[in-house]
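Supplementary Text 2. Reproducibility record for the structural model of the 366-residue chain.

All settings were left at their defaults, and a single model was retained for analysis rather than an ensemble. We include the record here because the model underlies the residue-level annotations in Supplementary Table 4.
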Amino acid sequence: MNGQKKLIDSVLGFSPTKYVWIDKPHKDLPNKVIVKFKSGQTGSLDVKDPLSALWAKMIDHQTKANLPVYVEIDEESGVITSVLIPHIFTVQKLETNERGILLVHLRPSQAIHAVLPNSPNFVAMRDSLQAALDDGSERLITATLNDLEIIDVRTPPEHPGDSEDDPPAPEPDPPVSPERAEEIFNDMYSENCVACSPSSDCITFQYPLNGCWIRAHLMVYKMHDYDPPETPQKLVIEGNLEPFAPNDPDCGTPWGWSWHIAPTLMVTQPDGEHKYVIDPSLASEPVTEAQWVSLNNPLDTPSLTTLDWSIYYPDLGGSTGGSTASEATALVHMDGYRGSLLSNCLTYGPPPYSCVKRLFFIIGHR
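Retained model, structure tokens:
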């Protein structure tokens, strides 16, 4: 393979302009699109190729947000061979494991990221992350898509923060029957993205690696649309979680989750009312709280916290507080994970993937 030029830079524009090729029929697409970077570098994309077309849309999205993009460019041909999206995070916790790998807990993220000790810029990245942890400042972090290995850490450009929305007052929510709980679960699962062609409003149940708080919030809003509406709560599990995930190309999370969240409903059973969790990313039917804990595969004793439906990103640490967000905001945040799901599908084929372990997972849902 030829040498690869690695670049993190903002984009000046495309040639031809994106209006010539974005969302156009395949027959009308140009043979090549040139991406012009602010540093003066350029790279080309064949937008007739589905993966390159996805990269072009990812680059355009970053440009609209006034954020840089990470690309690898073949030094001989000038073709862009890889695209990654840097994200803005705050650092919640740093710990080093027995192999010298720096495990990084970020907000917003349920998935733990890592800085490998053999990374060329390990010391600089470690020190920047530590400084961010110490003073609460943000970092613009680039990580690999599935391994979540951090390859770049820098100070982000100025950007507007997400506005929070005041949620409506919750309605009284009586318990549901087991049949109704099953119906609601199936309805939520019907919102699942088609991996190789995700719609603009689908939910990424088959991209379990990250984004659980967005999936949970979108499910809650869809339950509110029922007549009469359902007003579920949410359940957060915190701990050292290593769920089995055959919808991930590596069949699991590379460094584990530090937490996970899903909506819950009270369900009437012969012996009384019981809490059931609605989580199509891990299960194929409503499951009890104990079953859901088991599916998260905690390696230590986890903690559980019940939250109001309106909490979007939880404060964690046993707190019942957190940020709020509208359905529209959650849909926008979900879009990045739809792109990750599509990227995996175009690279590895559609999920689920071949795994040796035998555990409960989604295969087309019954």
